[in-house]
Amino acid sequence: MEGKEMSTFGEDLIQAMGEALAHAKGEGTAILHEPVDPREVRMRAKLTQAQMAPLMGMSLSGYRKWEQGQRRVSGPAATLLRVIEKEPGAVQRALAG
């Protein structure tokens, strides 16, 4: 990173750390994500696990761990799952180039 990019990144990191510290102290607001079931999303989108994994940017084995409950779905991944649930074609088109 160069000059201004590093400065912006540093400022963003400091802000994020401050928000995390405030949340740990019970201060401030937290963003809570409703749980999302990747298998249900995949089934509604009529996709196979092999089709779903690349849409999520992960390996097939990693995706399967989500469906088996061995891995937890994070906030950003949950958001992407919600987009795939509503508009799977949009995500496929975006990733196709």
Briefly summarize what is shown.
The two termini are 26 Å apart. With 97 residues, the chain is an all-alpha fold.
Outline the low-pLDDT stretches: none
Identify the CATH class of the largest domain.
Answer: Mainly Alpha
How many domain units? 2
User: What is the averaged pLDDT score?
Assistant: 82
Major sheet: none
How do the strands and helices of this protein lay out in sequence?
Layout: H1 3-24, H2 38-44, H3 49-55, H4 60-67, H5 75-86, H6 88-96
Helix pairs in contact: 2-5, 3-4, 5-6
3D architecture notes:
- By secondary structure, this protein is an all-alpha fold.
- The protein has two domains: 30 residues; 59 residues, 434 Repressor (Amino-terminal Domain).
- Helix content is 67%, strand content 0%.
- Helix 2 runs parallel beside helix 5, helix 3 crosses helix 4 and helix 5 crosses helix 6.
- The radius of gyration is 17 Å and the shape is elongated.
- The model has no long low-confidence stretch (mean pLDDT 82).
- InterPro entries: Cro/C1-type_HTH, Lambda_DNA-bd_dom_sf.
- This is Transcriptional regulator, XRE family.
